[in-house]
């Protein structure tokens, strides 16, 4: 590997960028705004621990961005990032204008995220339960769902219409890196129901106040669990497609559990029964 006498080896080099019209800066801003993987699987991530998770998950880095104030910490990460990635140093103000976090840690990246199709996720039902997310709009809830899906051995997650993008920056942080590893895909849920039926899956939906109590539900076979959004729950047209409604028992004065908590409890119960 050739060395530049001023900047050192490729792993040590940080190329200064001053303007917001730089091609890489514009690409990062666009990827953050999109919240989903681009046509070539590119997505934006930020924060020291999330970048570490991306490295641990074997993702390919296209470009890595550091603010001036984060430069000392950046030097620790550079040897772990592929030699073909661009490594860029931005003024603090420019960096903060591109990264959506209110308290940016001074490091962000464009990476190639793994992408999956509806068929990929449904075919993974033999490995574990599927989750179908119907319109969950809070990125913290979605991140929690993705984290629990990996923790409790889910086969994959389908993100239905109106659901926040899995590569939303807040969803990525809440997933603690699970978003890089759990198979997940955007999907039209009516179409997904047809594919699930073809594979012989039982379709379950969570409900706040009616249905079979979760501990009494048979969860041993291949199942898909539908999780509704924070307010309206499962759309009526999907409720009619379900084989069973499942209720998580809780104190009556609590109106409902949020989507992330509900999904986590159901996934834990499935894992417990299958042990």
Quick take:
With 275 residues, this protein is an alpha/beta fold.
Layout of strands and helices, then pairs:
Blueprint: E1 15-16, H1 23-34, E2 42-46, H2 48-56, E3 60-67, H3 71-77, E4 86-90, H4 92-98, E5 107-112, H5 118-123, E6 130-134, H6 139-151, E7 156-159, H7 169-175, E8 184-186, H8 189-198, E9 202-207, E10 212-213, E11 223-228, H9 236-239, E12 244-247, H10 259-274
Parallel strand pairs: 1-4, 3-4, 6-7, 6-11, 7-8, 9-11, 9-12, 10-12
Antiparallel strand pairs: 2-5, 3-5
Summary keywords:
single chain; 275 residues; alpha/beta; 60s Ribosomal Protein L30, Chain: A; Alpha/beta knot; seven-stranded parallel β-sheet; five-stranded mixed β-sheet; 10 helices; 33% helix; disordered N terminus
């Amino acid at each position: 590997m050739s060395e530049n006498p001023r900047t050192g080896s490729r792993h040590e080099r940080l190329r200064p960028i001053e303007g917001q019209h730089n091609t890489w800066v514009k690409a990062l801003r666009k990827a953050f705004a999109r919240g989903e993987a681009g046509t070539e699987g590119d997505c934006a991530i930020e924060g020291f621990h999330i970048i570490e998770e991306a490295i641990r998950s074997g993702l390919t880095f296209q470009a890595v961005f550091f603010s001036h104030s984060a430069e000392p910490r950046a030097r620790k990460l550079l040897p772990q990032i592929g030699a073909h990635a661009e490594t860029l140093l931005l003024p603090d103000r420019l960096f903060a204008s591109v990264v959506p976090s209110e308290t940016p840690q001074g490091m962000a990246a464009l990476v190639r995220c793994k992408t999956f199709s509806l068929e990929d996720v449904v075919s993974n039902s033999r490995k574990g339960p599927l989750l179908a997310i119907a319109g969950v709009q809070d990125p913290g809830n979605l991140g929690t769902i993705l984290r629990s899906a990996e923790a409790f051995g889910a086969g994959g997650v389908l993100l239905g219409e109106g659901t926040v993008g899995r590569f939303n920056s807040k969803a990525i942080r809440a997933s603690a890196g699970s978003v890089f590893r759990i198979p997940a895909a955007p999907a039209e849920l009516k179409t997904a129901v047809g594919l699930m039926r073809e594979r012989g899956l039982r379709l379950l939906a969570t409900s706040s106040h009616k249905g079979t109590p979760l501990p009494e539900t048979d969860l041993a076979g291949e199942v898909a669990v539908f999780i509704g959004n924070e307010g309206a729950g499962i759309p009526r047209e999907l409720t009619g497609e379900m084989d069973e409604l499942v209720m998580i028992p809780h104190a009556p004065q609590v109106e409902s559990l949020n989507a992330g908590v509900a999904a986590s409890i159901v996934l834990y119960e499935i894992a417990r029964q299958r042990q």
